[in-house]
Amino acid sequence: MGKWLWRFPREQTSLWASIIKSKFSFGLDGWSSRHLHPSTRRSLWKSISSIAPIFLPFTHHCLGNGNSMRFWLDKWASHRPLRDLFPRIFDLSTKQSALVSDFHTLSTWNLHLRRNLRDLEILDLPELFSILTSHTPDPSKADSI
């Protein structure tokens, strides 16, 4: 089943992926689905997607345009989500589930914080921006795993 989870986001234009997408509505992670049709309550895809929570921790996202990966919650800039690396700054974010593309505009990273940083939080900033400056979204490429 893991093979199908791996292939699904990589083969978005294939016939089998198009059929799956027509029957289900997908979350940002590309695997989590909500049923659209009553006939899909018991399906092969439901079984396959049910292992996504087990499968996803072993994947790493490759940044393209940033339109399908979550800034704080997905592993796109490090071996761990930014939420885990910078918990104090994450707690201050007003967009904790937002996409990478929501944080990067005109070659600038905007963290969308609800207040100014204090001393302990400021200490995390150089490391965070060091990671961010080495990962710049490319509007001409799609995100991948």
Give a structural overview:
The chain is mainly alpha-helical and 145 residues long. Helix content is 39%, strand content 7%. The chain has 8 helices and 4 strands, in the order ααββαααααββα. It has helices at residues 2-10, 15-23, 44-49, 52-55, 82-85, 87-92, 100-103, 119-133; strands at 24-26, 33-35, 104-105, 108-109. The strands form 2 sheets. It has a two-stranded antiparallel sheet with strand order 1-2. It has a two-stranded antiparallel sheet with strand order 3-4. β1 and β2 (33-35) form a beta hairpin. The longest helix has 15 residues, at 119-133. The radius of gyration is 17 Å and the shape is elongated. The chain starts with a helix and ends in a 12-residue tail after the last helix. The mean pLDDT is 81.
Any descriptors?
about 140 residues; mainly alpha; two-stranded antiparallel ribbon; 8 helices; 4 strands
In short:
It contains eight helices and four strands. With 145 residues, the protein is mainly alpha-helical. The strands form two sheets. It has a two-stranded antiparallel sheet with strand order 1-2. Strands 3-4 form a two-stranded antiparallel sheet.
